[in-house]
Design brief:
Blueprint: H1 16-36, E1 49-51, E2 54-56, E3 60-62, E4 65-72, E5 77-82, E6 87-91, H2 97-110, H3 141-162, E7 173-175, E8 180-190, H4 203-209, E9 212-220, E10 230-236, E11 253-255, E12 260-264, H5 265-269, H6 274-292, H7 297-300
Antiparallel strand pairs: 1-2, 2-4, 3-4, 4-5, 5-6, 7-8, 8-9, 9-10, 10-12, 11-12
Helix pairs in contact: 3-6
Length: 311
Amino acid sequence: MTSTLGWPKLGYEEWSETVETLHMWTQIVGKIRLELTPWTNHSWHVPLYVTPSGLTSSTIHQRSRQFDLEFDFQGHELTIRDGDGRRRSVALRPRTVASFYEELRSHLEDLGFSVQINEIPNEVADPIRFPEDTVHASYDAEAAARFAQVLNQSVRVFSDFRARFLGKCSPVHFFWGSFDLAVTRFSGRRAPPHPGGIPGLPDWVTREAYSHEAYSCGLWPGGAASPAPAYYAYAYPVPDGLSEAQVDPPQAFWSGDMGEFFLPYDAVRTAGDPDGVLMTFLESTYQAVAQLAHWDRAALEVPEGYPHASA
């Protein structure tokens, strides 16, 4: 079992095939939640949430009954629990997406839950329908356990960062479409319509997600387009001058191709104070966005701690 202490290595190249497989597995679970959960603004009804050992759907209701789905990357199983106390599990091991999908559907039907989902993956190039996907079939158990550890360390710092904001702010949650951890702050003002154009994502979903001015930050575990795991931060719309803004720590940089700031995960992991380095990146990039976009910072921000403590 992987230790729950520290910030472990997370090199993308060594577990890239596992990332691609996990991406598809989490999309299946996320689409089940999507199908059975009322729509919430900015698609906040679809993400997964970090647990001590992985990711959970949280409670899903189907009429008067309920169940949840939880990835355990330490015990290496997906657990299905219903409101009657029954449990089923799907082993997380080297196996095809098609096999994972079929077993999960079978267990849900055995428990009395029939769910029809869109079987085409979102936000990926050359998607393969889940029942036909025999291409993605990797699972590196040790790397998956380290991933759960990185998610937990990141959520802890993101949650502290989120607590310093009084305005509208998302939960700290995991989007299975883009396969990243994120938290988003809003200025409260409407934003111009987003141009859309994200592959595998309907434009109306994107426009609703970015209906208001936003600053978003998160953790990207790596992918084909950008292999190195990194923390990111961006704004919509992008205020004039953001690409030239000076942000910290020194390892942070602006990507013109992506239109956002990045901080390599290794810069955090190897720092003497990983929490402080990551928080510096979050605060520095947020302040650059808020200042250049003229957010009402006095009304939106609060010192760390209870908002009413000095009242």
